[in-house]
Structures are given as structure tokens and as C-alpha cells.
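Quick one:
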Amino acid sequence: MTPFQRAAARLMVLLAALVALVLLFKPVLIFVEMAAVELRYFWWLILLLSLAGWLIWGVGRKSKP
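Output:
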């Protein structure tokens, strides 16, 4: 599996998890709708999504010298 395929698979799993959460927990959908309307909540959503991305792709990698 190439690195591109691995990254695409991770993205698909992340999107599937997001869809599953929205379907399972209706308050999540309500929060996302509210966040899209009110910017003071929207930056928290961006922060949480950025943290999730960093945890998925950034943690555990060795830095290149």
C-alpha cells in the first residue's frame, strides 16, 4: 500500500466515523449546525478537528533531522 493510499484510507475512515457519530448522536448534528451559524462556536469545531487530524497523522512519527 502506497503512502497516498494509506492517507486516503485514513481519510475515508475519519469521514465514516464522523458520519456514524452524526447518525448515532443527533446532538452532534445540532452542535455542528449551531457552530456553522455562530462563529464563536465554530472555532472550537475547527480546533477539535485539527486536534483529531494531528492525533491521527502526527503523533508517533519520528522527526526527520
